[in-house]
Amino acid sequence: MSDTAIQTLKKMLAHLDDAKKYQSLRDVMETLPAPDLAAVFEDLPPEKMPVLFRLMPKDLAAEVFAELTPETQETLIQGLSDRELKLVIDELFVDDATDLVEEMPAGVVKRILAQASPDTRQMINELLKYPEDSAGGVMTTEFMELRPDMTVRQAMETIRTNGFDKETINNCYVTKSDRTLAGVVSLRTLVLAKDPDQQIAGLMDDNVVSVSTDTDREDVSKLFEKYGFLAIPVVDKEKRLVGIVTVDDALTIMQDEINEDIAKMNAMAPTDRPYFRASLWDLYKSRTPWLLFLMLSATFSSLVIRSYENALAAVTVLTAYIPMLTDTGGNAGSQTTSTVIRGMATGDIRPHDFFRVIWREMRVSLLCGLTLAVCNFGKLMWLDGVGAGVALAVSLTLVCTVLLSQMIGSVLPIVARKVGIDPAVMASPLITTIVDTTTLLLYFNFARLVLGL
Amino acid sequence: MSDTAIQTLKKMLAHLDDAKKYQSLRDVMETLPAPDLAAVFEDLPPEKMPVLFRLMPKDLAAEVFAELTPETQETLIQGLSDRELKLVIDELFVDDATDLVEEMPAGVVKRILAQASPDTRQMINELLKYPEDSAGGVMTTEFMELRPDMTVRQAMETIRTNGFDKETINNCYVTKSDRTLAGVVSLRTLVLAKDPDQQIAGLMDDNVVSVSTDTDREDVSKLFEKYGFLAIPVVDKEKRLVGIVTVDDALTIMQDEINEDIAKMNAMAPTDRPYFRASLWDLYKSRTPWLLFLMLSATFSSLVIRSYENALAAVTVLTAYIPMLTDTGGNAGSQTTSTVIRGMATGDIRPHDFFRVIWREMRVSLLCGLTLAVCNFGKLMWLDGVGAGVALAVSLTLVCTVLLSQMIGSVLPIVARKVGIDPAVMASPLITTIVDTTTLLLYFNFARLVLGL
Fold first, then answer.
1. Contact B338 A263 (CB under 8 A)
2. pLDDT at site A3
3. Quick check: B156 and B207 in contact, CB under 8 A?
4. A210-227: buried (b, 16+ CB within 10 Å) or exposed (e) per residue?
5. Cross-chain Cβ contact A294/B328 below 8 Å
6. Cα A92 to the chain's mean position, in Å?
7. C-beta of residue B269 within 8 angstroms of C-beta of residue B263
8. CA distances from B335 to A380, A436, B187 (A)
9. Segment B30-48, tens digit of pLDDT
10. In what side-by-side order are the strands of the sheet with B145-146?
């Protein structure tokens, strides 16, 4: 739903509420998707929230609740009675309930756990053990489990009896008596099966791709993209099935990871809050340390310039091309570094491709650099009207700086990955600072050589 | 599967092939996921491809075929007989067949269409009408269709009869007799329904989110992320259901769009080829025009420096801080510009938030700038040992340049969106070039003022 639609919706709901037309309000809300209703709740005054919340049927209410930001969840919980809170907790999927417990302050957590059924409480505690960014931390324990010796008929019966509170039944997981994962069978296969007496063992895919509880959630989301799965089973160290991750979680993980990478690639500490939910202090904290670090790193370029002060004083026009040269070096470097970072993230470039990457980059960057140098030489001679010596020095620097920047830019992310640093921090800003110094050294040495300083 | 596993697999298959153990080869291939087999095919010598391809059961063969790069598909097709090609085309999902027709050279397309069944040919021609980056261009026409007056029993019967060649049956779409979309019902709902004689009209969700054939594919993928759908129906101008987009396509679209954004944000023309599949010429073409444009734009900073040559000649140490100042301006600018670009991409920042963004950025950037200026003043006075005047000029420039860069960086992407330019091109490199000139102007004017030049 578009923004304007959400605005209209807000006005309509406020109007119905003011007029106390609760039946109509309930009817309207039932027709709306949960994420849109959640968007409306975000901007409601706190005292209105419980009123509207109570009007929704409990499954919709739970869905809307799961979509709210932690701040709004907390406000809403404060307005609910213990009995109402219990209804919500019971209806939530256990992975959403676990996220809730992780986000709320201690007092609220106590109230939540007190209202949860013993079963739910146990599942929440189980899930809380896993780190948030692992497969264990994003999985749900509410999956559909079948046995290999069931017939199709028995399996469908089991699904009809137990399927209601599962996060998905589109894929059913077949486990042996020791709970180890034996295979997966889709609801589609079961429904389309010709013979209701066929055993699941003969229908299931016994070559299942699974992940372990400690697999990084980013790797989990990559498997979804590669194989087009709707869900991936998660197993513990003894290969017992303990949960599943569903594709909607994979989409969210992918977006989060990309936000994180883009922040790092632009010299910011990543935050997981949307722009307007982050406080000014959050923004300040995410930006200032990197700016400060890069500013202090620029000491090297200052030192280079100061040690060539005499050359600059002799031919003052040389200064005019410093920003152009350092910028071009930075831009060329960030082109390759972002290409390689992204290539590694999507799996197109692997650590053992190191020399292949260098060999490609060397040829491309030489072509790039030569093109730039030729254009630049012409511009300096005929438009800027500087001497041939200066034009030559600037152009020679260009070839070398593009070559060097693109080589450094392609090598650093791969090296970073090898030594265990996140390649994304090797992006534009850091590359710019690093290649500034080399660019300036090249420039002054070419100038000295060509102009005889 | 990891790289090493793929390598091992390649060796194993080559070994079995050499020994002519075709039955074992077939058995091994049947247990492997299609994307992994496709990875093996990519590196096979052309003459081996058809041999291995023929060993696979036809549904697996089609799945593997759909995963191959266009180059390998073309090579493989050249090794297949017309009859074999026909089997593949019949087994492919129609959206994959359409992609194939779009990628192949004219001669191969002719052969493909000649082998396709009349039905398939018609569906392919239908899909070819839509632009590649629209919902129509990514949808499939093989969806499960039901009628509102069917009972659950009749619906299940229809699914069992017609479900085999549908891309998904997890969601079934309910249409009226004029083919307009009436609702959606999940296979889960049908399976879990208590009463087999209940009508679909009473079970279906009649408030379906749908897109139109010309909806941008990026907007389609955002709907998947927002609502957690497994599929979205696509309707034509008369609201008739013409296709569906499935979540696996959404994941691919999301990755493609992000690759495109990251390329643009780093001054490259986007290519849709993986790194090693792009030719050197492709890489050259995607990089050089932007580098050239940015290099020529740096003329402004050269002009500023040349017009203040006297000031620089009088206090030569001023030159030493030019790279630090322009880099800091560029880094500060790219922080906000990437935050705003990403915020707009995920929907956190909307065009009407213009003034809210400016007001936030003004306060944050002032804090950032002041912190940097204080640290810098200390460093220049006590470490670099420059005079208080120079230290003051540099520090004053820092405050103003961080403020200005972050303001420009946050405003430009929003303005770009408003005038219909892709905000992603307003990122780091362009911002750097733009803020260079303002930074230098600020610097020289502060220097003149403070040092009385």
1. yes
2. 61
3. no
4. bbebebebeebbbbbbbb
5. yes
6. 24
7. yes
8. 33, 19, 46
9. 888 888 888 888 888 888 8
10. B145-146, B171-175, B181-186
From CA A79, how far away is CA A56, in angstroms rounded?
A: 15
Look up residue A4 and give its amino acid.
Answer: T
Cβ separation of B284 and A364 shorter than 8 Å?
A: yes
**Calpha distance B214→B217 (Å, rounded):** 9
Look at the block and give the residue holding tokens 């992000």.
Answer: B258
B328, closest residue in chain A (CA to CA):
A295
Cβ neighbors of B194 (< 8 A, separation 6 or more) are none
CB contact under 8 A, B251 and A225: yes
Query: pLDDT tens for residues A326-350?
Result: 999 988 998 888 888 888 887 788 8
For residue range B300-310, what is the model confidence (pLDDT) as tens digits?
A: 888 898 888 88
- Distance of alpha carbon A154 from alpha carbon A200, whole angstroms: 9
Report helix angle B322-346 to A428-451, nearest 10: 150
Residue B202 and residue B186: Cα distance in Å, rounded? Answer: 13
Taking the C-alpha atoms of residue B265 and residue B334, their distance in angstroms, rounded to an integer, is: 9
Other C-beta atoms lying within 10 Å of the C-beta of residue A334: 31
Predicted local distance difference test score (pLDDT) of residue B1 = 53
**Which is nearest to B427 in space by CA: B342, B355, B362?**
B342
Q: What is the pLDDT of residues B65-77, one digit of tens each?
A: 988 988 889 989 9
Angle at A159 between CA A157 and CA A165, to 5 degrees: 140
A328 → closest Cβ in B291, B320, B342: B291
Nearest-CA distance A244 → chain B (Å):
16
Distance of CA A72 to the CA centre of its chain: 23
Tallying the residues shown for chain B, one arrives at 453
Helix, strand counts (H, E) of chain A: 23, 6
Compute and round to an integer the Cα radius of gyration of chain B. Answer: 30
Q: What is the ipTM for the molecules in this complex? A: 0.77
| Residue A305: partners with Cβ closer than 8 Å, 6 or more residues away | A312, A322, A440, B319, B320, B322, B323
Which residues contact residue A210 at a Cβ distance below 8 angstroms, ignoring those fewer than 6 apart? A181, A232, A233, A234, A235, A241
Please check whether residue A443 is in contact with residue A280, taking contact to mean a CB–CB distance below 8 angstroms.
no
Cβ contact, residue pair A327, B32, below 8 Å: no
- Positive or negative, the Cα torsion across B251, B254, B260, B264? negative
Side-chain-side CA neighbours of residue B329 (13 Å): 32
Those residues whose C-beta lies under 8 Å from the C-beta of residue B88, and which sit 6 or more positions away, are B58, B61, B62, B65, B80
Higher pLDDT, A115 or B365: B365
What is the C-alpha end-to-end distance of chain A, expressed in Å? 67
Joined tokens for residue A327: 């910028």
The residue behind tokens 């219990």 is: A86
List the Cα angle B80/B86/B91 in 5-degree steps.
Answer: 110
pLDDT band at A18; cut points 50, 70, 90: confident
> Among partner residues A288, A348, A429, which is closest to B275 by beta-carbon distance?
A348
Tokens of B286: 């995607």
Give the global pTM.
0.79
